Amino acid sequence: MIIKNREDLISSNLRARAVELIEAGITRVLPANLLRAAVRYSHNRKILRVMGESYDLSRGRIFVVGGGKASGLMAEELERIIGPANITAGIVNCNTDGYETRKIAVRQAGHPLPDEAGVHGVQEMLAMKARHSIGKGDLVLCLISGGGSALLPCPASGITLQGQQEITMLLLRSGADIKEINIVRKHLSLIKGGQMGAFYEPAKIVSLIISDVVGDDLNTIASGPTVPDPSTFADAQAVLKKYGLLTKAPKDVVDFIKRGIEGLEAETPKETCNCDNYIIGNNSMCLEAMAEKARDLGLRPTIVTAEFSGDTARMAFEKAQEIAGGKYKGFDAILLGGETTPTLPENSGKGGRNQHYAAVSMLAMKKLPSPWLVASVGTDGSDYLPEVAGAMVDDRSLPAAMAAKIDIEDYISRFDSYELFLKMTRSLIITGSTGTNVSDVILYLLG
Description:
The chain has two domains: 6-28 and 284-446, glycerate kinase, domain 1, CATH 3.40.1480; 31-281, Rossmann fold (3-Layer(aba) Sandwich), CATH 3.40.50. The protein contains 17 helices and 15 strands. The protein has helices at residues 6-9, 13-28, 31-38, 71-82, 116-131, 148-151, 161-174, 178-186, 195-199, 233-242, 251-261, 283-296, 312-324, 353-364, 397-403, 408-413, 417-424; strands at residues 39-42, 47-50, 53-56, 62-67, 89-94, 104-108, 139-145, 204-210, 275-281, 301-311, 333-341, 372-378, 388-394, 428-430, 440-446. Helix 8 (178-186) crosses helix 10 and helix 13 (312-324) packs parallel to helix 14.
């Protein structure tokens, strides 16, 4: 059972169906299911197969590195598939602990802000190269998933961890999208933007990636540690300038980027010939599983997009207008995936983009005459708050709030959706960490 408070949420037929669809989608993209579908290992021939490609390890060794919200469960399943005896050593950083692995150490680190534990974990990963003389013929498996940008911190020389933390928080609150945020992150790191791949040369790097990024852009997922980076220091400075952060960013960050523009700091690699990157899971897989479950329940689903993006409130109103205007006539389960971006005020309340989307949808959908439901969920189980994946509202939510004299618009204006839904009850979707991360899913059910 993925949704812990499902009995509290299920107060109507639409809500019961919504819970089933959400759980079917997240189950499909759990790391164990994705690894089993993508990876095979021949113990007799010492051959690793990844999505049809083969890697001969008869004369080489296997090492494991990586990080992300799914990396702990990925490490567990990888050990089951390959066997601990066939892995020489491994270290991954994850935001949770308690994983049962023998050869791959899972280090708990900070998210969404990087911390010292994350830095130490990355240092251990890099130290493996010299400790084990990793070289030609060896294979380094890199387990990457959403959250990896924060969970794999390795500040460049001259950048402090505090500087990384401060610029991360400023970017997260600025309205910058994840691609823009990660352009800056890549240029403040020793391993992001293809630098981890370059570090392990001449060993072969094979990255197994669970994507949480709209469009599955390899450069952006976890800031692309094994992917060549087309962006530059000038691009990083342009992001800071665009969002008015040049005067707010820590001095060490601004100065380092300036030195990079002047050619005094090394650019990120523009090619990584020793790296193969495989996306083994993404948002589309989640949506397809939800659509399949919807058909099993007698619904008529449509997958609108797996690349939903834009301002959170604006997109909620636009989608409501499309539904009211009959754009999806003939369908009663409307599925979207991706990641919207709220721009937070200085003193915002609690709650993430999924809770905010659901709160705004109560107002955006209020004129729809027939029964309806909207659920917006982070597949990782954390909508900026631990445990809370998102929220669910329906045509009964707004009247109930008004009867209780709850000022919904006030909570929305303060971006305080978590406190709003605490007052309303039966709205927050509680999962805790799911162990995976393929961004968000938004579900509309029409009665």
